[in-house]
Amino acid sequence: MAKKKKQKKPLLSPGFKLFLIILLIPISITVYYSSFIVWQQLKDLTIFKEVSTALNEEDIQKEFDVEIPEEYIPIYIAAGELYDVPWTLLAAHHRVETRFSTTSTLISPVGAEGHMQFMPCTFVGWKHPTCDGLGQGQIPEEDKTNPAIIKKFGGYGVDGDGDGKADPFDIEDAIYSAANYLSKAGASDGKLRKAVFNYNHSDVYVDMVISYYEQYESVSSELEKIVLNTTF
Q: Taxonomically, which superkingdom (predicted)?
């Protein structure tokens, strides 16, 4: 007759198991909560913000042929708000004119100057006695950046950064001046194509600028959130 196998006693009794479960629940909650707090603090660190912003911005701009430099966007926005011009239109002009200031020179073959390529007579004013033809003029260098001279001759140059000069080779002054010009040319009334055509009398130019404007406008709110959150 076969002997009955002796049943092994469980290592842990049901009562002890229950005790462990009750003991581990608050520990698990504490560990989870602590991990969550630590992660939130890490996310607030500058390095994490920079990495996250870079990844988000890269994803948003991946369809662009040239990414909009992050440092220029707050300037576009500020100038656009002041002159009631879409900041994305300013970005589009900057892209077309000097590829976001990365061209080998900021002086064109016909004499347009600076980041946004103003002819000297347009920047200082066509009422200047030396202005005619294409608008190169014979304007003294010190007069080209003098806000009082620009006001006197009805130019579009603006001292965007408040340093007492309106300089087409200064990025803020150039963008604010472009916003001033486009606004007066009709952009502030929603006549974007008319304003762009006034900037450069070429239908091909207008089509290029508007094409980039529409690309940038499609993601403008996302770019604003990312850039302005990291700026302030």
A: Bacteria
Contacts with 177 (C-beta within 8 Å, 6 or more apart), sequence order: 116, 118, 123, 156, 157, 158, 160, 166, 168
Please state the domain count of the chain. Answer: 2
Q: Report the distance separating Cα 149 and Cα 221, nearest Å.
A: 38
Give yes or no: residues 93 and 117 share one domain.
yes
User: Domain limits at 38?
Assistant: 24-60
Quick count: other Cβ atoms within 10 Å of Cβ 52?
13
At 176, give phi and psi (nearest 5°): -65, -35
Judge whether 80 and 216 are in contact, CB under 8 Å.
no
Q: Are residues 170 and 161 in contact, defined by beta-carbon separation less than 8 angstroms?
A: yes
The two three-digit tokens of residue 140, written as one number: 């003294």
pLDDT digits (tens, 9 = 90+) for 104-135: 999 999 999 999 999 999 999 999 999 999 99
State pTM to two decimals: 0.76
Tens digit of each residue's pLDDT (9 = 90 or more) over 18-75: 666 776 677 767 666 666 665 555 545 554 444 444 557 778 888 899 999 999 999 9
Residue 19 covered by a domain: no
Does 53 lie in the same domain as 85?
Answer: no
- 129 domain residue, yes or no: yes
